[in-house]
Design a protein that fits this description.
Two copies of one chain form a homodimer. Chain A has 515 residues and is α+β, with helices and mostly antiparallel strands. Chain A folds into three domains: 90 residues, Immunoglobulins (Immunoglobulin-like, Sandwich), CATH 2.60.40.10; 284 residues, Glycosidases (TIM Barrel), CATH 3.20.20.80; 97 residues, Immunoglobulin-like, CATH 2.60.40.3950. Chain A is built from ten helices and 34 strands. In chain A, helix 4 packs parallel to helix 5 and helix 8 runs parallel beside helix 10. The N and C termini of chain A lie far apart (62 Å). At the A-B interface, helix 7 of A face helix 7 of B.
């Protein structure tokens, strides 16, 4: 009979929580490769097959994220007699207050939790935070608790790169550091630790964008140049362990094209393996160096993009939406900091403006921080403390997004007036960037194709001036009443403009006075 | 025995010419749909299957473009006894001086003729020129003979749209205008005329980008809303007739997403039909209105893009290359003219600058002209005369391109310094656009990934100032000797700058003094 545990998993039987069944099984030979274990979880009209894994010390586990409430039954299937035909059941209860389920794609270009709550990505990056000292990891979590970020990019494998060359406390495989590994035997302690950290993020409301491969190894440990068989086994083990955690996203790679030993076909195979192995269909992406992968592949849920200039203005930011027709997340747009590299010395103002340019273009942006530090504790690699000025402003942006239309901010006139994002006829966010005008002519563009009737003469709007740097929202007195001025715009019937302070980083929030 | 004809096809048996075999066959029933005819053309180690077509008056034809020289044999296969098992042979001779074969994709983002000659696309657009009076068509050809264009977008079906509402002299199907058609019976005269015009373009060195479907009908003739069966039959007939013409490109649609009666799956089917039916693998693309198709589809050879702002600067122009990893042709970037529409009132300067921005970004651009005319003879729709000032400047650009590296102009530092195109270490074209500086600091960016050694200290370059509007190239005296100035640039060792005239529309051409 199944032994039901809730060891490290507090909300085990909530909807979208982790249900875990553990069993004692064979310890002889190599249990990681020689024992097959799957389980079928089912309700009356619905079933999911999940793969179990060996967790060391004779423990085999099967994890499952119930995506529907109510009673679930399961039965195992295994090559080991002790693990085969085990049955059990549990009740998936109502999710807790902060449990909205996994994030999914919504409205073609946006995201929402499984319960329908919009997810407006404000990402950050701490590639190797789980490979630092426990004290530093705890500090990272403390920093995150006070920061605006709801997604964090992090590597499974340790990272070795300029300013970040420490050995990690734990390694993913059995063997001897730095490079004598038995890739057929995983190190359960490494993955148990990783899982704890993913759950720590979950408690903070942060999605873990888990990076499965990366090039910052260069053969030091050799995790960037394992055999195809080892790569595939590793992916299946990771998915078996992590797929039941609702806040996991899969990132096949950081800078995939910088991994010299891999070809594009390898990443195609990885993507198909992960997509097929994951019973819970987590978000799945791949991040580029200089060469973009084909983000239209059906198993890629969104485009995870590095481009150091695409969000410098909304006219660029909007373009990859056209190409990929999926959510666009600019996961790497350079970092706020002072490194002697052009990818690591944005001013805070520039970092914040990139988020706004991406936002009005209907895309999402990621933050990173790279201020030099005497002990090389740089947020982007190690986590720790944030020193920059952008996070407070991103918290302001997050508040704005929380009050934006549920469907997500869409470009209104994508190629001609890309500074206007929103929902035609209801809500507009206009970002003025570096320009420092003293007045803004009130005008709204013709709605996009297919929404011709979204605005018409006589509609009334109210406006606020948002100072995105000083984090203020100031109401503009009075209403604006629409009057068409030609084929492409509506202005205010009384010709009113909006006075502005003559400073950069201003935005306008314009909302319909609903009848 | 096969009747070998060279009626309208002068260079019938040149390599990449059209070989045509004609046969008399059944005239009863519906020969268009009831008679199957194919032919297998073969050499010792190579064969191609082509489909024949009924050309009216009992004439059946099979056309073939020999892609290799030497003796070709063929044998027919038909459901009609008179057409079955016909055999013949011909010798494909050396191509004539102006015959470089069909245009293919080359170097991932560029084009070349089959004989290796680079093809640098300078496109234009006369959607309905073949549907005008004979005199007007002749005028169009005369205009083209003196214009710089080497590709022309044109619709098979007539066009009905603002400023262009005439009935055509010929219709593609049997029946009664405007909309009583028998789509199972084609009108051979219509297609014979179309073919003559495609050959006229071929003689002028112009590729015919043949648009197979378009929305500018709105049910008037109903060619935009035929049944799926009629669509597919039409495509197969067109491919059977036109595929042997080396200067044909297939454009599945203009503004595909504006065709209200079609779904995206229809265009997927069209693309697969054309790709499978075409034995000669002509370039194949699809052009968008507001929604881009998935240009990564394997049967699409390049991205044919409408975007009214993407080539306003090179930083935008370069982006779709990343996304599609195919040649990017900005076939519609607004038109030079004075229509009361924002897509039709570019100044000539703006039209020209879009070509240059696209060029340095490693892409190709299309022209169109929309000056109001008392009799609505607007180049973009009807052809006729050109009135604008951009074509002369595009001729200057074409001369520059003819002297550019064979491989095509590639972005040098695509996201950071998109104004630099060329071939790292050898050739640079730097476009300054609207800016009117009086001096340009000589500096060359670090070469792209994988070409780190393309430039080094001590290399010598010479520069010219190109006035892209006044069409002059002025040599800058003396050499520039490279010296690295930091991680991302090389400057002149003697700190020299290049004096500029303080006018807009300047470019720099910088060429290595080869050792």
């Amino acid at each position: 009979m199944a032994l039901l545990t809730a060891q490290l998993l507090a909300a085990a039987a909530e909807q979208w929580g982790v249900f875990e069944a553990s069993f004692k099984g064979p310890t002889t030979g190599n249990p990681f490769t020689e024992v097959r274990l799957t389980a079928r979880f089912y309700q009356d009209d619905f079933a999911r097959e999940v793969t179990g894994f060996y967790d060391g010390d004779g423990n085999y586990r099967v994890r499952f994220m119930p995506e529907r409430p109510g009673t679930w039954r399961f039965v195992t299937d295994s090559s080991a007699k002790e693990l085969d035909g085990k049955k059990g059941e549990f009740i998936a209860t109502k999710p807790g207050a902060n449990n909205h389920g996994p994030v999914r794609v919504a409205n073609e270009f946006h995201f929402a939790y499984a319960d329908g709550t919009p997810f407006r990505q404000i990402g950050t990056t701490c590639y190797a935070w789980t490979h630092q000292s426990v004290a530093l990891q705890e500090q990272t979590l403390k920093t995150l608790a006070g920061a605006p970020f709801n997604k964090l990019r992090m590597c499974i494998f340790p990272k070795r790169y300029n300013w970040s060359t420490n050995e990690p406390p734990l390694y993913p495989f059995a063997g001897t550091p730095p490079r004598d590994w038995d890739t057929t035997r995983f190190n359960p302690a490494f993955f148990q630790h990783l899982e704890r950290r993913i759950l720590d993020l979950q408690r903070l409301g942060i999605e873990a964008d888990v990076i499965l491969f990366h090039p910052y190894d260069e053969g030091h440990w050799g995790f960037d140049r394992m055999t195809a068989q080892a790569d595939d086994r590793y992916l299946r083990y990771v998915v078996a362990r992590l797929a039941a955690f609702r806040n996991v996203w899969w990132s096949l790679a950081n800078e995939w094209d910088f991994m010299k030993g891999k070809r594009e076909e390898d990443f195609e195979r990885y993507g198909q393996i992960v997509a097929a192995a994951d019973p819970h269909r987590h978000l799945l992406s791949i991040h580029n160096g200089k060469v973009m992968p084909n983000h239209t592949r059906p198993w890629l849920t969104h485009a995870s993009i590095q481009n150091g200039s695409a969000v410098e203005d909304a006219s660029r930011a909007v373009m990859y939406r056209d190409a990929f027709r999926k959510p666009v997340v600019y996961d790497e747009v350079k970092y706020e900091g002072n490194l002697p590299k052009r990818w690591g010395n944005l001013s805070a103002e520039e970092m914040v403006q990139r988020f706004w340019q991406g936002t009005v273009a209907g895309t999402y942006v990621g933050h990173g921080e790279t201020y030099l530090h005497p002990r090389n504790l740089i947020w982007w690699a190690t986590g720790g403390e944030l020193h920059g000025q952008s996070p407070a402003r991103l918290a302001f942006l997050r508040k704005v997004l929380d009050a934006a239309p549920t469907e997500g901010i869409e470009p209104i006139d994508k190629w001609q007036n890309p500074t206007y994002g929103g929902k035609a006829g209801h809500y507009y966010l206009v970002y003025l960037g570096k320009a420092a005008p003293t007045s803004w002519e009130f005008k709204l563009p013709k709605p996009p194709q297919g929404k011709a009737n979204a605005i018409e003469d006589g509609m009334k709007f109210r406006a606020e001036v948002l100072d995105t740097w000083n984090m203020t929202a100031t109401s503009v007195p009075g209403d604006f009443t629409l009057k068409r001025t030609g084929e492409y715009f509506w202005a205010d019937a009384n010709g009113r403009s909006i006075p502005l302070p003559g400073k950069p980083w201003q935005a306008l929030r314009i909302r319909r006075v609903e009848p």
